[in-house]
Amino acid sequence: MNEVRAIVAMSKGAAVTIETILVPDPGPGEALVQVQACGVCHTDLHYREGGINDEFPFLLGHEAAGIVEKVGAGVTSVAPGDFVVLNWRAVCGECRSCRRGKPWLCFSTFNATQKMTLRDGTVLSAALGIGAFAEKTLVAAGQCTKVDSSVPAATAGLLGCGVMAGIGAAVNTGNVGRGDSVAVFGCGGVGDAAIAGSLLAGATTIIAVDIDDRKLETAKTFGATHTVNSKNVDAVEAIKAATGGNGADVCIEAIGLPQTYRQAFEARDLAGTVVLVGVPRPDMEVTLPFIEMFGRGGSLKSSWYGDCLPSRDFPMLIDLHLQGRLPLDKFVSETIKLEDVEEAFHKMERGEVLRSVVVF
Ligand SMILES: NC(=O)c1ccc[n+]([C@@H]2O[C@H](COP(=O)([O-])OP(=O)(O)OC[C@H]3O[C@@H](n4cnc5c(N)ncnc54)[C@H](O)[C@@H]3O)[C@@H](O)[C@H]2O)c1
Ligand SMILES: [Zn+2]
Ligand SMILES: [Zn+2]
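Above: the input record for the complex with zinc ion. Below: its predicted structure, written as tokens.
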């Protein structure tokens, strides 16, 4: 058993606190990871606001990289000393989706079997089955993806969630290709990654939409060719104006709001694709004109984790970064200490950062 410091959301809406937690040694199929860096993602804030589920207390943090410290019986994919990025969809290889050759949609992903707890034995719900705002965390071995260790942990760890989700929303789910036009709604870490992914895939028109001019300026540095502040102008009209009156081939919603989903739906060209990567709250509903769903054709898709396959995509994206073709380091706005996570949530709400990253 390991005693470590960690960030816990004890109850709905309350500020997060530092707690001492107990992390079991790895059992069969598990790995104990010494966390080196973990980014603050909007999904952590969704958890602490009760927007994901009510299984408090939550051990937050899920965008992380670190060193494998110990592995349990039967683990052969990683070994102590390996530098890994943690992923929250360790595919099973056996469910109906894996068997049909679509492991990125796996319906039965793995997490650690043993639970991490508070000192009094209260079981913690680890955010996305990871819980990496902790000096050490326990995961399923399949949640550890080995990557080139020459990349700083603060940079590499971001692939573990938001950056992968955004790049994958464009490249995998949206299938953005050469010459496409793309509109991205919400230019936080996820939206900017969708912009970077669209650039990588060869899109020629990339329209960034946000309500914060600072975010739009940053979006340009990731590859946005046009910016739209939807507080001041009609986003749908502006996107049509930038695409010859037609709308974008791929519209990516990276906020999780009904109104911006509707904008994405309306700003799409005929036979285009809408990708929802933002996470809605459980009480939200959208209303869409049914005839337009038919008449516009194309597809409305959701993107879980950018439809990524960590073993395929993490090492490949790290290689592209090392070759200077993907500026992963630019997503790191600041590095912070564990005790600064609550303040980092406020900075995120105020739009001051793309990613604050806890470095241990
Ligand atoms: N699908 C997945 O697998 C996955 C993975 C990671 C994160 N997410 C989700 O993606 C979303 C974005 O995450 P993030 O970390 O980038 O968040 P963030 O808070 O950093 O970014 C959100 C951006 O949206 C902008 N915004 C807010 N309201 C807006 C509006 N009405 N119109 C236009 N822009 C608006 C904000 O100014 C901000 O720039 C969250 O919902 C998060 O939970 C999904
Ligand atoms: Zn599966
Ligand atoms: Zn996340």
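Notes for the reader.
Residues 166-304 form a domain with the Rossmann fold fold (CATH 3.40.50.720).
The mean pLDDT is 97.
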